[in-house]
Amino acid sequence: MRILKIQTLRGPNYWSIRRHKLIVMRLDLETLGETPSNEIPGFYEGLVEALPSLEGHYCSPGCRGGFLMRVKEGTMIGHIVEHVALELQELAGMHVGFGRTRETATPGIYQVVIEYLNEEAGRYAGRAAVRLCQSIVDRGRYPKAELEQDIQDLKDFTRDASLGPSTEAIVKEAEKRGIPWMSLEARFLIQLGYGVNQKRMQATMTDNTSILGVELACDKEATKRILAAAGAPVPRGTVINFLDDLEQAIEYVGGYPIVIKPLDGNHGRGITIDIRTWEEAEAGYEAARQVSRSIIVERYYVGRDHRVLVVNGKVVAVAERVPAHVIGNGRSTISELIEETNLDPNRGEGHDNVLTKIELDRTSYQLLERQGYTLNSVPPKGTICYLRATANLSTGGSAVDRTDEIHPENLWLAQRVVKIIGLDIAGLDIVTTDISRPLREVDGVIVEVNAAPGFRMHVAPSVGIPRNVAGAVMDMLFPNEQSSQIPILSVTGTNGKTTTTRLLAHIYKQTGKVVGYTTTDGTYIGDYLVEAGDNTGPQSAHVILQDPTVEVAVLETARGGILRSGLGFEAANVGVVLNVASDHLGIGDIDTIEQLANLKSVVAEAVFPDGYAVLNADDRRVAAMSEKTKANIAYFTMNPDSELVRKHIQKGGVAAVYENGYLSIVKGDWTHRIERAENIPLTMGGRAPFMIANALAASLAAFVQNVTIEQIRAGLKTFRASVSQTPGRMNLFNLGNYHALVDYAHNAASYEAVGSFVRNWTTGQRIGVIGGPGDRRDEDFVTLGKLAAQIFDYIIIKEDDDTRGRARGSAAQLIIQGITEVKPDSRYESILDETQAINKGLDMAPDNSLVVILPESVTRAIKLIKLRGLAKEETHQQNPGTTVIDSQNGITPSSVVNTLL
Predict the structure, then answer these.
(1) CATH number of 488-718
(2) How far is CA 710 from CA 510, 691, 707, 876, in A?
(3) Which of 399, 534, 758, 877 is surrounded by the most beta carbons within 10 Å?
(4) Count of Cβ atoms closer than 10 Å to residue 120 Cβ
(5) Can you tell me the mean pLDDT for 697-718?
(6) 749-758 burial string, b = 16+ CB within 10 Å, else e?
(7) Per residue in 669-679, pLDDT tens?
């Protein structure tokens, strides 16, 4: 077997709208391509020996053991790889269950789809599953040591990529509330929400957290002084920088017992408590110096350690932290008890589990000695043997929830203290013998105020009720159900995506909001280009959704991005599907137009239930998507007599209709006429039907988002098919005696769309400079030739600079084949170089003719046209009899375009 490609999907995708995290592995079974599992000697037995837990997989039989039944009866290895990859992740503690396996159009090559929780682990599991199955095929077994290593590696991947317990709690609460989130590229930042409504977090610090509060909390001595001045109970202590000052500091705090800790420390590092001798004090000083230059010496207060969590000025959880310890059973040594305690599945490394494994350090041995023990001692049954002086969970401690026990005065004090320090989220360390009594009565003290406090002890206490502290954070960041989202409008289709996306963004600008949009030409925010290039995938969408100035996102969504990575968002408010036509077939294992329709339908399906899928009623494959989506449906049509739209409107639906020369919104028994098509520049005086359809789709998408008819009209009348607004989309240039039209048509449907305009050119010759991307099928090029023969009087066939693996000249020959099949007497010539072909077409143009250029490089084509002199870009404006020139060219209006059409 051979893995040809592995892709990682991170959003709604071709395989699943609901399961966003998927690995797609393209697998060549090679010699096993026609061999089911029951024909491979010993395979079933070897698989069961290696992974007996596969008994829990139901598969198509729908019962426990169903999958193994399939293996025994005979199934293809690709299917088995899917289940093995899922099971390996399960054994590593990652609960996944979704998988799909499909044979491609190439026999023996399969697409194996598996769910993942961690990307690296998912990809590893796919590769490991192939290794395991190949080993069983070759040797009848998979060595146990290799399987154990695979599982350990998967665990390591998961631990290394873990968000941490606090961030994980916040993310889960966000998901529960429907708040989208994403990891940013630096400093472990998490973004909650999109665009202008986003909030950012780092651990448990938010973008509202005061830097002054954080700095103060990190300076423990300054915190203590501020609180003491405010009358809060704090330990008596001082700060020293030299060992020579230690003895005097001990006297100042009142003598032993004392605590020594670093001034700048966290997670209990470098702290030594209950120091009773000079030797212990010296050792404690050296331990603290490993963490901080300045050292705090404090009086040691007897009592239990409590963490009080305050969020947005309110106490939301209280936990008593119990230092790491073991309980004697009268038989085992302390060393054996520690080993047994660490076997608890709730204990892990660092912060990757509810509890942390117990590890001993210098203070542990001192503490044991003080209790009269060594590691080889056998404590009596029921005796508690403490192994750490501090109660931090990161050193193996445990937590007991005390939220319901805190005294009202202590609650008030904690909330007051956090406001004094100036933090929105803080954790107070309080030492007291009884948290249910006021601190002043029991000589309790506030030891520290922590910025970015951990949530683990509250969300998963060892004893007591888990507290939803992340919910309090969400309530603070998004109060009163404040929206975390911005409107997302996603546009897809075979043709017209870029024009419709740009037009929709332009219409939305009439509302005064900042619009971010992505197209095949680049990513834009407002009037400015952020990044040039083909930006129609999820990464470009993230640029828009991560920008804190963006109020509306309009995203062109191409097939390639959906296939490679899935959508770049959880769900849209509006999903627009313009059309589905034959293009890119045979690429990415999308071999039929039905498969292409299923791929495009992802945009219609990934819409909020209260959102709208805007569908082309004139395209049966698009119209059928209404059955797949849970969103509301809105249709657009060029046919005012459409039966589908009529029934839809009768049921209370909304539609955009081209009727009596008008673009209109129809709902119920009323019709809102937006504007006559001939007054909309994009439609070229109403003579470009496909542009009218694009304008209908954009108008309808805006209307269902409560953009007013007046704003839609203003957007339509000020948007032009120009180089500045729609480069490569019906850009018409006046070259004096003739005109040139540049359009990025590259498939049959777009050829037909351009042809619907070109056929209206009734004066002079119609010259076409044509070609197509080299990765299309042979029959696609033949079709382009047939269409060109029906559109143009003279044809120049060229090829792209990048032939995409096709032999130079072969695409042109196939186009010529199509031309001659339809019109044997057609006038044509082949000039493979695009620059030479464009220049030849412009050179030979007679008076009043139209040269139509369908280029690989729009920029190059426009540059060649402008080199011809005073090339005037034309578009149809409010007056249908006037040509309007691109103001950036600084050229005066020219002749009347209607006389040419």
Answers:
(1) 3.40.1190.10
(2) 9, 20, 8, 20
(3) 399
(4) 16
(5) 97
(6) bbbbbbbebb
(7) 899 999 999 99
Compare 487 and 383 and report the one with higher pLDDT: 487
Edge-first strand order for the sheet with 21-28 is: 2-10, 21-28, 109-115, 99-103
Residue 894 has pLDDT above 60, yes or no: no
Map residue 822 onto helix, strand or coil.
Answer: helix
Count, residues in the chain: 901
Per DSSP, the three-state class of 546 is coil
In the β-sheet with 632-637, what is the strand arrangement from edge to edge?
Answer: 528-532, 522-525, 515-518, 552-556, 488-492, 572-577, 607-616, 632-637, 654-659, 662-667, 670-676
306: β partners: 320, 430
Rounded to the nearest 5 degrees, what angle is found at the Cα of 768, between the Cα atoms of 766 and 772?
155
pLDDT score for 881 = 34
Could you please report the per-residue DSSP string of 746-789? -SHHHHHHHHHHHTT--SS-EEEEE---TTS-HHHHHHHHHHHH
Question: Beta strand 109-115 with 355-356: parallel, antiparallel or unpaired?
Answer: unpaired
Give the Cα separation of 95 and 89 in Å (integer).
7
Through-space distance between the first and last CA atoms of the chain, rounded to whole angstroms: 60
pLDDT category of residue 389 using cuts at 50, 70 and 90: low
- Rounded CA separation 331/322 (Å): 24
Query: What topology does CATH give the domain 731-867?
Result: Protein-Tyrosine Phosphatase; Chain A (3.90.190)
Instruction: Select the CATH number that applies to the domain covering 236-299 from these four: 3.40.50.720, 3.30.300.160, 3.30.1490.20, 2.40.10.10.
Output: 3.30.1490.20
Nearest to 459 by CA among 344, 324, 311: 311
**DSSP states of 126-193:** HHHHHHHHHHHHHHS---HHHHHHHHHHHHHHHHHT---HHHHHHHHHHHHTT--EEE-SSTTEEEES
Q: In this predicted model, what pLDDT tens digit does every residue of 595-644 receive, in sequence order? A: 999 999 999 999 999 999 999 999 999 999 999 999 999 999 999 999 99
Contact 839, 755 (CB under 8 A): no
Say what the pLDDT of residue 268 is: 66
Which stretch of 423-427, 765-769, 859-863 has the lowest confidence by average pLDDT?
859-863
Give the rounded distance of the alpha carbon of 146 from its chain centre.
34
Check the CA dihedral 175-177-182-187 and report its sign: negative
CA distances to 347, 508, 662, 668 from 642, in Å: 65, 28, 16, 15
